[in-house]
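Standup notes
- DV: blocked on the single-chain target, sequence here:
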Amino acid sequence: MPRDHERGTEGSRAATDGQRTGTAGSQTSTDGPRPSTFSIVARDPEQDAVGVAVQSKFVSVGSVVPFADAAAGAVATQSFANVAYGPDGLDLLRDGYGAEEVVEALTDGDDEAAQRQVGVVGQDGSVAAFTGDECFDVAGDVQGEHYTVQGNILENDATLPAMADAFESTDGGLPEKLLAALHAGNEAGGDSRGEQSAAMYVAKPEGGYDGKNDRWIDVRVDDHEHPIDELERVFKVYDVTLLAREEPDEVRELDGDVARAVAATLADLGFYDGDPTSVADAGFGDAERDALEDFRGMNNFENHELSVLEDALVRGWSDATGEGEERLVDAIWHGLSRLERE
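- DV (later): unblocked, structure below
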């Protein structure tokens, strides 16, 4: 879908190629630390899911920027962040305000709005953002259908369009699209001061643990050399452990070289005491499945039947990366990815 820009409040700038680019401002002595940050706020109407993904040269950005409520929408507050924008914005969305009205209400009542940046997506499909005139360059925001991307203290003007393009072109569910946007923004330039933390928070009705709340996805990397890569790794473990998938129509059994490789990995991890070299010919039998069952229980993968995990390993092994347990988990994730999340 074509991207556009939302009209800002007082002090907004004219857009160029769908992007609003801020001008450099002076940081006063009363300012707190300003994370150099880029984020995406988005909605998946098919899943009724709304969420935020963010990366910053700032410790524990997940504790500051993202807010979401499955009944209302999602908010990202950044630059000289006003964290009250999160709960206040969600309250306004619950009261029936559209995203643009929410942005105007938040910034009109804030004497320091010129230093703020905020993106809002409502469950009603409305989208809006604001980048204050005193946000440090390069700063701006871009909107498209169901999403807004925003960033400040960026390396270049290419970061935000790259995020928007990745979100629109990536297949898969909302978490895959959010992660793709973060990777694309980082690769296009990202934060001019580097990387430190990242987070993804998505709300969905009854999406939380045992269906008792809406916290569908909540993963954070608070301090890491490559936080987006680490966020993706952690999310895959989270996905396999906590998120439900539809049941497959058919399952495959491990055999051949993949069966041997899985048995060898289970042996290295201490779950299997047989001879992995014989498995390629003898097949993945009861002893090997007992070892896989122990691995499943140790890692809390009971969300999926043993036969489904075996099938996932068959389908995902060639796409997986890493060694040992990381390779097993990555293979399971790839193998499950063909199944829709519930």
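- Follow-up: The first helix runs from residue 85 to 94.
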